[in-house]
Design goal:
Oligomer: heterodimer
Radius of gyration of chain B: 14 Å
Order of helices and strands of chain A: EEEEEEEEEE
Strand content of chain A: over 45%
Shape of chain B: globular
Number of strands of chain A: 10
Distance between the termini of chain A: 34 Å
Distance between the termini of chain B: 39 Å
Strand content of chain B: over 45%
Largest sheet of chain B: 7 strands, mixed
Strand order of the largest sheet of chain A: 2-10-9-4-5-6
Shape of chain A: globular
Radius of gyration of chain A: 13 Å
Largest sheet of chain A: 6 strands, mixed
Number of helices of chain B: 0
Helix content of chain B: under 10%
């Protein structure tokens, strides 16, 4: 199975900050990488797919980059509603494993 | 309205089985694979498997092989997850998710809490 490792596990930031979360795959996954936002008690919400493509309706302050084994989710101009846990997921091969999550505190 | 609506919460005893359903509406059911993901309390997301509603054999994560079954009913646009030999570690919220092009999980059900307790 492909292991996905996110860092940091948690992060405190302020409104207006630029925040980056990294995700490393244990083997080459090309650009088969999705990012999700999950708020307490809610289902995950897709933010970014194919490593860098913004899902329709998602705020443009979210962006993704990377390929191969190293990926980054960046949130520019952090807003209070961005308080959530963020997950990366590889869809290169099954099982489609997730990172352990990054809890963002504002 | 494009949505996935899941069945309600369940409480089961260890060793029992549970069936969670996921009804699709607002789009062509057979055009998208459906995946199941679970989340134990306070934990991360865990992929369980996928099914092609249009036919073909499901694919299961190795961890669940032998006690999981995913089925599809095109007459009701519903997929179901059956999990047997339940143990306390199966206590989790179970989600179905639609997966389209570029393997993006773009539509999720609301989640179904399954509690396993004696």
């Amino acid at each position: 199975d492909i292991e996905m490792t996110q860092s940091p596990s948690s992060r405190s930031a302020s409104v207006g900050d630029r925040v980056s979360i990294t995700c490393r795959a244990s083997q080459n996954i090309l650009i088969y990488l999705n990012w999700y936002q999950q708020k307490p008690g809610k289902a995950p919400k897709l933010l970014i797919y194919a490593a860098s493509t913004l899902e329709n309706g998602v705020a443009s302050r979210f962006s993704g980059s990377g390929s191969g084994t190293d990926f980054t989710l960046t949130i520019s101009d952090l807003q209070p509603e961005d308080l959530a846990t963020y997950y990366c997921q590889q869809t290169s091969t099954t099982p489609h494993t997730f990172g352990q999550g990054t809890k963002l505190e504002i | 309205q494009v949505q996935l609506v899941q069945s309600g919460a369940e409480v089961k005893k260890p060793g029992a089985s549970v069936k969670v359903s996921c009804k699709a509406s607002g789009y062509t059911f057979s055009n998208y694979y459906l995946h199941w993901v679970r989340q134990a309390p306070g934990q991360g997301l865990e992929w369980m498997g996928l099914i092609n509603p249009g036919g073909g054999s499901p694919t299961y994560a190795q961890k669940f092989q032998g006690r999981v079954s995913m089925t599809s009913d095109t007459s009701t646009n519903t997929v179901s997850l059956d999990l047997s030999s339940l143990r306390s570690g199966d206590t989790a919220v179970y989600y179905c998710a639609r997966v389209g092009i570029y393997s993006k999980f773009d539509l999720w059900g609301q989640g179904t809490l399954v509690t396993v307790s004696s």
